[in-house]
Amino acid sequence: MISRDDIKNAFLFSTLPDELVDRIISIAKPRSYEEGEVIFGEGGQSGSFYLVRSGTILIEQEMTRHMTVTVATLNAGECFGYSSLMEEVSFSTTALSSEASEVITIDGKALLDMMEKDHTLGYLIHKQMVHMMAGRLQRRTEQFLRALSTHPEIHELEK
């Protein structure tokens, strides 16, 4: 069973009033994943949106055929699968469970439909999403700059 607290524990839904949370619960299902189990794969169809209830989820991206990089590590209260909230978009990453994990799966199309019909719901979710994405973009920029600063040729440019 999914509780209001399970949904509100996610930053994305933390500002929603109970009646809107109840509507989200109606399109959500709990799901368990074992260690190493793939939740979705890069290039796959994005039908669901996910909330981590417990455990740890890795978001990975393939750099080459032989190299995969973990781009995010998600814990309880964090969300993933944002592609499901955009029309006709496939996943650009792979999500897998790094330990036994409980995840709440939300029907992405149903949530998107709710957001389109109820502009208050859509606004509240998108407002939180902008804050979340801005934080992620800032972290990625910092990671990129740190990686760039160690590049051997970067110091040649300073001369």
Automatic annotation (TrEMBL):
InterPro entries (alphabetical): cNMP-bd_dom (IPR000595), cNMP-bd_dom_sf (IPR018490), Env_Response_Regulators (IPR050397), RmlC-like_jellyroll (IPR014710)
Domain of life: Bacteria
Entry GO MF terms: DNA-binding transcription factor activity
Name used for this protein in its record: Cyclic nucleotide-binding domain-containing protein
Domain Cyclic nucleotide-binding: 12-115
GO cellular component, one term: cytosol
Coiled coil residues, start to end: none
PANTHER family: CRP FAMILY TRANSCRIPTIONAL REGULATORY PROTEIN, HTH-TYPE TRANSCRIPTIONAL REGULATOR ARCR
Any matching Pfam family: cNMP_binding
